[in-house]
Design brief:
Layout: E1 4-8, H1 20-31, E2 38-42, H2 52-58, H3 60-71, E3 76-79, H4 89-95, E4 98-99, E5 103-108, E6 111-116, H5 126-135, H6 138-144, H7 149-168, H8 179-188, E7 194-197, E8 204-210, E9 213-219, E10 227-233, E11 237-243
Parallel strand pairs: 1-2, 2-3, 3-4, 6-7, 7-9
Antiparallel strand pairs: 1-10, 5-6, 8-9, 10-11
Helix pairs in contact: 1-3, 2-4
Length: 247
């Protein structure tokens, strides 16, 4: 039987339980996740997360499904995205998911890979990078999580709307990764030939030449609810596949 690991990103689970994205993701967790050796979630699992006290009840069905999988022996690894970087101890305990660093090097089925969300590679979007630095500051997150739930939800919804409008009015090239940033990253990890990330919502396989060597950048898709995910196995290496049709 083939053993494989699955990589996903940018699910953007919605608050409405019957939303098509949520339904598709629950189906994925029920049908595809149990067949995998492990699952990697590379950011933006949730459209919005304003604290464990709010998020765990809001996404109860997904939280419970995660716990069933991890209790059943399927390891799930997650790194933060730009939408949901406020998960805390209660989330990890409720789901059994294991947090990983924002840039993680892993050897999986004999393949060395770098995994990340991908937003830090979008260095041309200076306004976003500045805001990211502010929002991720420990003092800012500490203060935010101590606001009343209603206030946090209001701020979260307002930021969601501002982000949507900002993206609509932003040049397309600014929202993609910076080529030099990718070159620099591969230079820092010369023995790694594969980078997997999300964030840009532009699923693709890019071949990059770094110091005369061929490197590969794999970009995951967002869930609409159809998507592109990555399957990594010892037999076939890395494959960027359509979901649900190609699995």
């Amino acid at each position: 039987m083939s053993t494989h690991t699955l990589f996903i990103a940018d699910v953007h689970l919605q608050l409405e339980n019957d939303h098509p994205i949520n339904s598709a993701f629950i189906k994925f967790l029920s049908q595809e996740a149990p067949k995998a050796e492990a699952i990697y979630i590379l950011g933006d699992l949730f459209e919005m997360w304003v604290g464990d006290d709010v998020g765990i009840p809001q996404y109860k069905s997904v939280i419970e499904r995660f716990k069933q999988l991890t209790d059943g022996g399927i390891p799930i690894y997650l790194l933060f995205g730009n939408r949901d970087f406020l998960m805390g101890k209660r989330f990890w305990k409720a789901t059994g998911i294991q947090p990983i660093k924002q840039l993680e090097e892993r050897s999986i089925h004999g393949v060395d890979v770098l995994v990340m969300h991908g937003d830090t590679l979008c260095t041309d979007d200076r306004e976003y990078q500045k805001m990211r630095k502010i929002l991720r500051h420990p003092i800012v997150t500490w203060l935010f999580l101590r606001l009343p739930q209603k206030k946090r939800l209001q701020i979260g919804h307002n930021m969601r709307e501002k982000s949507r409008k900002y993206s609509q009015n932003k040049p397309e090239n600014i929202m993609d990764v910076n080529a030099q940033a990718v070159q620099t990253l591969f230079t820092e990890y010369p023995h790694v030939n594969h980078l997997i990330h999300g964030h840009t919502h532009r699923p693709a396989h890019h071949v990059v030449e770094v110091n005369g060597k061929e490197k590969h950048r794999w970009v995951l898709g967002d869930w609409r609810p159809e998507t592109k995910i990555i399957k990594l196995s010892g037999e076939n290496g890395i494959e960027l596949l359509d979901y649900p049709s190609a699995l």
